[in-house]
Write a structure and sequence with these properties.
Layout (H helix, E strand, L loop, with lengths): L1 H7 L3 H10 L1 H27 L1 E9 L22 H10 L8 H6 L3 E5 L13 E7 L6 H24 L7 H5 L3 H26 L4 E2 L2 E2 H11 L2 H14 L7 H27 L8 H30 L2 H36 L1 E4 L5 E3 L4 H46 L4 H12 L1
Helix pairs in contact: 2-14, 3-14, 4-6, 6-13, 8-9, 8-10, 8-13, 9-13, 11-12, 14-15
């Protein structure tokens, strides 16, 4: 009964003795299979299940409004548009083997706005997350460079558009307008420039310095070129004397003279009508009638006085003097426009940037190759150990039984075990 129990039972010690005899086989098999498995995982499985990601923020003047410097809208998904991918690929020889067409068509690259899971910490303004499948790149360094180039593309675009800022007033359009139009155009130009300075001051402060001068000073200089007082003065003079360009001067004088003649005829007619009204026949209605005629008569006389003043002022010298004042304001405003364009270019260079949360792209998804290696090694070692035990245990038991039988025979003949028999049995058992 005891022999049967020993023969059917397998102890941990037995397993260890069997495995120890072929331990090198177990370790070698586990090492080889682990190497093959890890290589296959790293080369084929992991790149298709894992992504490279980068978090970054985009900051430039006015970026909170989601607009470029020229006012056109900024769409963050344009960062991974087919055009953007192709442009970045062509910008660096390192990216020549990247299949950006497949990347785009297969949606293997994505971008989303960053979000915060904590209500007490809202999402950072302008935070975006780029993700792309790993298998498109040879290594993390190439992926990092590619994703950084994509993220920095909107910043380069913002700087490029800022350099094209043009607040100037087209000379052809300006010269083609009458004086009223010219004054309106100049005031619109001034308003546009001041609005731009106001936006920058609101975002950075009036003391923010660009090329050694504060934004507040730039704005003050722009505002002084055509102050509200000067604009009102020029507008009043224009209204009072009705200035026109030299080309229209004679036409204007002829029009005013004709208007005066018409008014004089009307004045004579009204005077005649007033003389027909007899005091003895006047009633309340006739009194109102007379007052109405007198009022019209006064306005016509006043208008003719104004026409005389305008005709007197409408001479080449006065028109040229007024025109020269307008031209001086125009030239100064164009200098201001040039200055604000230069300020914009410098400001965007100073304040436009892409800030990355990590230096290198982060691998996400999939499983660590180390964990895969450890898991495969343990599993294959157990399997190899089980196979070795399955093969070695029967052999080991057979040797032990043979040694026991031999020893029993010797004990029966010699009355007790000899030292030599013990050594033989021990040697057999070890084998």
């Amino acid at each position: 009964m005891e022999d049967e129990s020993e023969e059917s039972g397998v102890s941990i010690a037995d397993l260890w003795r069997a495995a120890k005899k072929r331990l090198w086989v177990i370790l070698l098999a586990a090492a080889v299979l682990t190497s093959v498995a890890v290589l296959a995982y790293v080369s084929y499985i992991d790149p298709h299940t894992a992504d490279y990601t980068m978090e970054f923020t985009l900051t430039y003047p006015g970026s909170a409004s989601q607009k470029y410097p020229d006012g056109s809208l900024f769409y963050f998904r344009d960062i991974i548009s087919p055009e953007a991918l192709s442009e970045v690929k062509e910008s660096d020889a390192r990216f020549s083997d990247i299949d950006v067409i497949s990347m785009s068509q297969s949606d293997d690259i994505t971008i989303e706005k960053g979000e915060s899971g904590d209500e007490a910490r809202p999402a950072e303004e302008g935070l975006y997350i780029l993700s792309v499948k790993k298998f498109y790149f040879d290594d993390r360094g190439e992926a990092t460079a590619f994703l950084r180039a994509l993220a920095q593309r909107p910043i380069k675009e913002a700087k490029a558009r800022a350099k094209k800022f043009d607040f100037s007033l087209d000379k052809g359009i300006f010269d083609g307008g009458v004086f009223e139009d010219k004054l309106s155009l100049l005031m619109e130009q001034k308003s546009s420039i001041l609005s731009r300075y106001d936006a920058w001051i609101s975002e950075y402060s009036g003391e923010y310095r660009v090329s050694g001068k504060s934004l507040k000073n730039y704005r003050t200089e722009a505002s002084a070129v055509i102050s509200d007082v000067l604009f009102e003065e020029l507008t009043k003079e224009l209204d009072d004397y009705g200035y026109v360009s030299r080309e229209l001067l004679l036409v204007k004088i002829a029009e005013l003279s004709e208007e005066k003649e018409i008014n004089e005829r009307k004045i004579d007619e009204i005077k005649a009508m007033l003389e027909e009204v007899r005091p003895v026949t006047m009633t309340i209605d006739s009194s109102n009638y007379e007052e109405g005629l007198a009022e019209v008569l006064a306005k016509l006389i006043e208008r003719n006085v104004e026409i005389d003043r305008q005709i007197a002022a409408l001479n080449i010298e006065n028109v040229e003097t007024f025109e020269a004042r307008i031209e001086t304001v125009y030239e100064k405003m164009q200098d201001v426009a040039k200055t604000v364009s230069e300020v914009a270019s410098v400001l965007y260079e100073q304040e436009s940037r892409a800030d990355f949360k990590t230096t290198n792209a982060v691998s996400e998804g999939g499983t660590s190759a180390i964990l895969v290696g450890v898991g495969v090694f343990v599993l294959t070692a157990l399997i190899a150990g089980a196979i070795v035990c399955a093969v070695e245990l029967p052999k080991m038991r057979a040797r032990e039984r043979a040694a026991a039988e031999t020893q029993a025979e010797k004990d029966g003949k010699g009355g007790g075990p000899s030292d030599k028999a013990d050594q033989t049995a021990d040697k057999t058992t070890e084998e």
